[in-house]
Specification:
This protein is an alpha/beta fold. The protein has 13 helices and 12 strands. Catalyzes the dehydration of chorismate into 3-[(1-carboxyvinyl)oxy]benzoate, a step in the biosynthesis of menaquinone (MK, vitamin K2).
Length: 303
C-alpha cells in the first residue's frame, strides 16, 4: 500500500503550506470506502495547495499504520481511539457517523436472530466488531461464538449463522441480496439497532492526530483541518460529480449512492460526542476497553 502524492501537493502556494512542505508532506490516511469520499473528493481534484501523501486502506489497516507511526493524521476506528487515546488528539468537527440507519454496517443472518449461535466478523473492522457484541449481547441478550474472517459473505455464511460486513463490502453484498442472490438471508442494520437501543447516533470512526506531530507541527494540523473542511464544501457544491465518482468506483445504482450519502454524517458536535462516550461505556462493560477515555480535541485543550 504505497503512499500517493495528490495533485495539490505540488502547488504549495501559501506560505504556511510552503513551510510545511519543507518538513515533508503530511502523511494522511484515507479509508478506502465511499463513506470518506465526501471528505477527500475536493483534495483529489487538486483544489487545495497543501502537500499531502496519502495511504488508502480499510479501517483495520489504517489503525495499524497509525499506531506504528506511519501516518500523521488519519481516520481510525472509534474503538481504537478509545484503546490508544493517550497517543493521539482528535481533529475537531469530523467523524464518520450516522444517526440511525447507516446501510453499510450490516449483520447478515440466515436464521432468526434469537437462534444465532456463531457469528463471522469481518477482519476489516474494529468498531463494528464491538458494536456487534453490544447489540447481540447487551441489547438482544445473546451469547454467540465469534470467528474472524475475510469479508466474503458466501464463505462467512457457509461457516456461521450470521456475518458482519462493513463499508462498501456491505453495500455491495446487500445490493446482491436485494437482487435475489442470497434467498432467505436478512440484514440487521447495526446503526438502526444502536439508535433503537440508545436513542443516539453512532460514531464509527474519528480523525486523529499523532500527539508528536501535533506538538511538532501545529500549523500542519491547522492546515489539514482547513483542507478537509474545504474539501467537503467542494464535494457538496459539486454533488453531481461526487455521485458520478462514487458510481464509477463501486458500480452501485444511483438511488443506492444517493441514499447512502444522505445517511452518512461527518460531524462531531456535542450529541455525537455523547454518543461516542456511550459507546465507550458499553465497550468498557464488555471488557473491550480498560477504561472510558477522555476526549482530547485539538484546539480545545485547557478550556
Amino acid at each position: 500500500m504505497a503512499l500517493e502524492t495528490w495533485p495539490g501537493a505540488a502547488l504549495a502556494r501559501t506560505p504556511e503550506a510552503g513551510a510545511l512542505w519543507r518538513l515533508g508532506p503530511v502523511r494522511l490516511g484515507y479509508i478506502d470506502y465511499l463513506n470518506t469520499l465526501p471528505v477527500y473528493f475536493g483534495i483529489e481534484q487538486g483544489i487545495i495547495d497543501l502537500p499531502v501523501a496519502v495511504r488508502r486502506g480499510v479501517p483495520s489497516e489504517l489503525n495499524r499504520l497509525f499506531l506504528d507511526g506511519s501516518l500523521d493524521i488519519t481516520p481510525i476506528s472509534s474503538i481504537e481511539f478509545g484503546r490508544h487515546a493517550d497517543r493521539c488528539v482528535l481533529l475537531p468537527d469530523l467523524s464518520i457517523s450516522a444517526d440511525g440507519r447507516v446501510a453499510s454496517i450490516l449483520l447478515f443472518h440466515r436464521v432468526p436472530l434469537p437462534r444465532v449461535r456463531r457469528v463471522a466478523l469481518t477482519t476489516a473492522s474494529a468498531t463494528s466488531v464491538v458494536l456487534t457484541r453490544i447489540i447481540l449481547e447487551r441489547h438482544l441478550g445473546l451469547v454467540p461464538e465469534y470467528v474472524r474472517m475475510a469479508p466474503d459473505l458466501d464463505a462467512m455464511l457457509a461457516g456461521a449463522d450470521a456475518a458482519l460486513m462493513i463499508g462498501d463490502d456491505a453495500l455491495l453484498a446487500d445490493q446482491a441480496r436485494r437482487e435475489g442472490r442470497y434467498p432467505g438471508v436478512l440484514a440487521l442494520d447495526l446503526g438502526e439497532a444502536w439508535k433503537e437501543m440508545t436513542g443516539l447516533p453512532m460514531v464509527y470512526a474519528l480523525w486523529v492526530i499523532r500527539a508528536e506531530f501535533a506538538r511538532r507541527s501545529p500549523e500542519g494540523v491547522w492546515l489539514v483541518g482547513r483542507l478537509l473542511q474545504e474539501s467537503q464544501a467542494y464535494s457538496w457544491t459539486h454533488r453531481d460529480a461526487l455521485l458520478a465518482e462514487a458510481r464509477r468506483r463501486r458500480h452501485l445504482p444511483e438511488p443506492v449512492i444517493e441514499d447512502y450519502f444522505r445517511l452518512i454524517r461527518h460531524e462531531f458536535g456535542p450529541r455525537y460526542r455523547e454518543a461516542l462516550l456511550t459507546f465507550f461505556r458499553h465497550a468498557h462493560a464488555l471488557g473491550e476497553l480498560a477504561e472510558v477515555p477522555v476526549l482530547r480535541v485539538w484546539g480545545e485543550e485547557g478550556r
